[in-house]
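User: Fold this; tokens only.

Assistant: Input:
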Amino acid sequence: MANHQTHTRSLSGAQFLLVAANLLKRAFIDAPRTLAKQQFRELERGVAVALPTLQLEDRSAVRFTVVLDHSEFRGTFNYSAFRASLLCLLQVTALQLREPGRAPAVFTDADSGAWVFGLPAHTVAQGLGNVLLLGAAPAEGDCQRLRLLYVDPAQFASTRDRHADAGR
């Protein structure tokens, strides 16, 4: 049986981002639609969903789970809206990782140790804008927890957009 260890501390931000994006893609995009929707329903209910285990070169393995915070989602939250947001997040991530020498911005909460990548995925659902971000919480034992979270899209509006909205 593979040894379960948490090796994520030795990964760079870009390496961790690549691993996380690939695991999310396998679990929600590449998986059969029935399974992906079932896992989405678990996320929607606040349950942590196990992602495929990552096998390392030394034959050890790293386990990952993912949780979702959709409290800031605008519009009707359903699998199609989630999938569109996740696809956008994966595209934004792929573009970032293709830029050589440019590390993604990472924001850290000093109190909890949780962090979020500064790669906002902007989507529109029923005419309402949404922003999905990817983050992670500190490893719990032998498991690394990813976090998908929707945030208020207003904080990503340009200053000009905010002044235009204030005048309405």
